[in-house]
Amino acid sequence: MPDDFELIRLQSWRSSAVGYSVCVFLARGQLIDTGFPGARRAVARLLEERRPRGVVVTHQHEDHAGNVALIAERGIPIAVARVTEEALRAGEANVGLYRRACWGVMAPLTSTLEPYEPAGLELVATPGHSPDHHVVWDAERGILFAGDLFLGVKVRVARPMEDPRALAASARHAAALRPRVLLDAHRGIVPNGAEALLAKAAWLEETIGAIDERIGRGWSDRAITSAVLGREDAIALVSRGDLSRLNFVRAVRATAARRAG
Questions:
Q1: pLDDT digits 0-9 by tens, 58-72
Q2: Alpha carbons 149 and 135: distance in angstroms, whole number
Q3: How far is CA 80 from CA 15, 32, 165, in A?
Q4: Domain shared by 145 and 248, yes or no
Q5: Residues 132 and 252 in one domain
Q6: 242 and 133 share a domain?
Q7: What is the DSSP string of 62-77?
Q8: Domain range spanning residue 192?
Q9: Residues near 206 by Cβ (< 8 Å), separated by ≥ 6?
């Protein structure tokens, strides 16, 4: 890795208790993502010690954009997609208790953002995990800061805003960049990044095909979930269905209906 690169893993006692953490990255003197609201003090300290020239945000979720307001208040310029900024200003209604407990509560963004053009970095649209999701691409060094694009090859759960079809296409798009290094916001460095992204895309496409075939035969969502993705994990219960295998099937059905229409 280049000398001007740093991976910083953020966690709180609440997130540690449920086994979650998130990474932010310093690259070329710039901060990629802002961590979660519960890590505000750690992020404030990071800003004071490293003094990034600007910040790049991958998407709207609170574990990635949770301290955008803090950064805006300090006058640090921010590179963020317009759709992400709009989502941050609107706030998210009905955030699940499990997310508030793990990450903290993110207030809607009210400050004016100073726009920023990243040096040596490019925001590349990769929707699927969320409609506004972007990766950050360092073409010169072959480093892909993937946000939540990857997470793993066989991720069987989804939240309501996810789109598995778009995610598969985005994974192939990112793999076509042929990254030398793939950095996942939760897993850190992912070996053989391009191959991992292609494996994810292939698994998604195969799984979506199996779901589509059963939709065509009139199966119910719950029957498809059981047959294709298996029994729900504990997270479905803890999240009250917000993060579940059933949501994966529902998302595939919704996009199938839009394509048919």
A1: 999 999 999 999 999
A2: 7
A3: 25, 10, 24
A4: yes
A5: yes
A6: yes
A7: HHHHTTHHHHHHTT--
A8: 122-180+188-261
A9: none
Question: Which residue is associated with the tokens 């310029």?
Answer: 77
For residue 109 the two structure tokens come to 């963004």
Pull the structure tokens for residue 104.
């903290």
| Distances, alpha carbon 33 to alpha carbons 63, 66, 133, 217, 225, in Å | 9, 9, 12, 43, 33
Q: Are 54 and 118 in contact (CB under 8 A)?
A: yes
The 10s digit of each residue's pLDDT in 120-139 is 999 999 999 999 999 999 99
81 vs 52, 85, 222, 244, CA distance in Å? 19, 6, 36, 28
Give the up-direction half-sphere exposure of residue 29: CA atoms within 13 A in the CB hemisphere: 9
d(CA 118, CA 32): 10
Structure confidence at residue 177 as a pLDDT band (50, 70, 90): very high
CA gap 170, 133 in Å, rounded: 10
Residue the block writes with tokens 């294709």:
228
Do 82 and 164 have their domain in common? no
Residue 76 · residue 55 · CB < 8 Å: yes
